[in-house]
Amino acid sequence: MFTNRLFFDISDTQKTEELRSKILTEYNSNQTGYYNLPIENENLLSDIDIWSSKIRNIQNIIVIGVGGSSLGTKAIYSMLHHEKKANTPNLCFLENIDPITIKKTLQNIKFEESLFFLVSKSGTTLDTISIAKIVMVHFGIFPNNRYFGKHFAVITDNGSALNKFANEYGLKSFFVPKNVGGRFSVLSAVGIVPLTLCGIDTTNLLSGAAECKEEFFIGKSTVLLKKAIAYTIKSEQNINVLFSYSDIFCEFNAWYTQLWAESLGKKRGNERVGLTPIGLIGAIDQHSFLQLIVDGPKDKSVTFIRVENMADNILIPDISLKYIEKADIKKGISAATLLNEQALATMKSIISEGIVTDDIILEKADAFHAGYLIYYFELLTSLCGLLLEINTYNQPGVEIGKKILLDKLGK
Amino acid sequence: MFTNRLFFDISDTQKTEELRSKILTEYNSNQTGYYNLPIENENLLSDIDIWSSKIRNIQNIIVIGVGGSSLGTKAIYSMLHHEKKANTPNLCFLENIDPITIKKTLQNIKFEESLFFLVSKSGTTLDTISIAKIVMVHFGIFPNNRYFGKHFAVITDNGSALNKFANEYGLKSFFVPKNVGGRFSVLSAVGIVPLTLCGIDTTNLLSGAAECKEEFFIGKSTVLLKKAIAYTIKSEQNINVLFSYSDIFCEFNAWYTQLWAESLGKKRGNERVGLTPIGLIGAIDQHSFLQLIVDGPKDKSVTFIRVENMADNILIPDISLKYIEKADIKKGISAATLLNEQALATMKSIISEGIVTDDIILEKADAFHAGYLIYYFELLTSLCGLLLEINTYNQPGVEIGKKILLDKLGK
Hints:
Helices cover 44% and strands 17% of the residues of chain A. Chain A has 2 domains: 2-28 and 205-388, Glucose-6-phosphate isomerase like protein, domain 1 (Rossmann fold, 3-Layer(aba) Sandwich), CATH 3.40.50; 32-200, Rossmann fold (3-Layer(aba) Sandwich), CATH 3.40.50. Chain A is α/β, with parallel strands linked by helices. Chain A has helices spanning 13-29, 42-52, 71-80, 99-107, 126-138, 148-151, 161-169, 189-197, 202-217, 223-232, 250-264, 290-295, 335-351, 367-388, 399-409, and strands spanning 2-6, 60-64, 90-94, 114-119, 152-157, 172-176, 239-244, 266-268, 271-273, 276-281, 300-309, 357-364. The model of chain A has no long low-confidence stretch (mean pLDDT 95). In chain A, helix 3 runs parallel beside helix 8 and helix 9 packs across helix 14 (367-388). At the A-B interface, helix 4, helix 5, helix 7, helix 11 and strand 10 of A face helix 4, helix 5, helix 7, helix 11 and strand 10 of B.
């Protein structure tokens, strides 16, 4: 079960119903394709199944991609790494054109055990293609090496430059639907292909997302509508903190950061609007960022994310260390319970300062709940974009820098 | 060489000189001990040297600590991992009371090859002591195991509860000076002991910090004074973004986040003041957060950090991938150059939007420059705290949550 408790009140029914009607219009227009990804992937899963029988002895899958091509996949892999199937490949990422990282990654893998996915919607992302060139030349695989198609595949738009390149050299292409933007693409081939091959239960992942979709569009849950209103209209908070209580959410926070910042930071005519995302990990960041939330300016909302029943439970030994008895706790408390109680105590202290707070509880850290969580934040982002009256799905501001770079270094 | 170019102007000489006089008063009061850490550590280094000859066959050093007890050490280790001495132990961290992480960490180490440091200034941090209990019981080492003192040591205040515990069981204690707060303690035993044992050149690290100290206090550089004024008085920006161009800075960003948030988010009488830190990694976050900076509200300043001469250089192959020629770049460009040019192009695009921007250039990613950088940001934090007229060195806001937790779980 997925629960989201709100510690603030939005009682304007007219506003929530207006917002619901707006998102239905967007949904029905079919211009925004991510809405239907949870129920459209049956062919993809059987396609992966057939193709995976052709690749053997793969120990490492390396995604070469950045932003929307890597963050969602990383988020889900980190959340579910503890429950991946046995004897499945490891997943790693080459995202940054950083020589130290590239060198270290290439040192740690053997080519004959590796499968590289070039992931780029447009197919021409400069960093991604440059890294791919380094990898190809490092392993002497390009051009015309007969193992090329066994160790490289692409995930891109049908008909993109990268797709044409793949066809030319006999590489397999998996496709991202044209109407699905990069940062909303994790439940398309972008995430589903590498995650399935690495032993993540993507069937359940998609079921969780489908359940979220159904509860929102058919079950008419109003929680997300209220949150979107609180963040955009009824509040002075323009910084939205995710306080996620477990290390498994570290990459999920990074995915959320991209989704939120790139979708909601926009020019609207002559105005600049936007909400600033911040991702924290509990209990670690109680010893870091928390002080600013409690005593600093009230420009932040805080969403807690926590897991009710964590796997791999460990009891805190009921022993007393001489002189450090102050840190003794009651008998029978597990690490997971202490983590959850840390979240609850922090939440209470924040609420007492009058800060806009809510609490997301995942029953388990499994594929179903991960899928639900991903789709939940995608919906929330779309709702905030509608209220801000911006285009949630473009990113015009990053083009200037790309142009400056290509003018200087391009051929 | 360490260079910081400012793309904004603060010409109020009276203001900068007032600020210099304020920090000199604080420095001379001796109440804030971090200022002198770079030149006070000679005894510590020889103490480590003598002690390290007694511990043998250690492959893993595990720091059990959180916040100020781990973040700085992690930051420096990540920045300098690529140049650590050969055949030195690995460094890892147990920070979070998260059962999944604890289980994974303990599975990957052998007790007989491991040395654990319990790091806590007060010595009673609940998470840290609970993790320590789990580790001790997991390896059957407590109480009265004759190997206890060979595999455990502590870093804490002289006379703290943890120090007394260590004395009781014959564990080595390294001390943090009493007037050095946790988040300003990385250049004390907290960072220097584990980093030295793991093959980091801490002598040069301290030299770099000493150089920064000298250039500020004796050379009378005004750059930091101008930055502090820009962030606190002359500007509407209350979000301060670090855009660090290399994966090696990922943990440095987390250290900066604690330093900035916990030091500068405070109540001042009935007011709430504070600056919000955000850490980004280039070029990755050009595909994430950048859109919000360029087109969103002008509430952010941006500091670029980059390395002029990176180690491990890799050339981008001068090949053309058919159909993807759009991503071709000039011949002879290295990955490091492309990374730097990405920073410069992004910087130009941000400056053109009129955003408060500056550019920190490290000549190399070595111990000297890492030490300089750490001390530089500590000074900047102190200067901003003086201008905000708050106590930079306490954290009263986090006590409420701790009390709520202990009321519920304490014995």
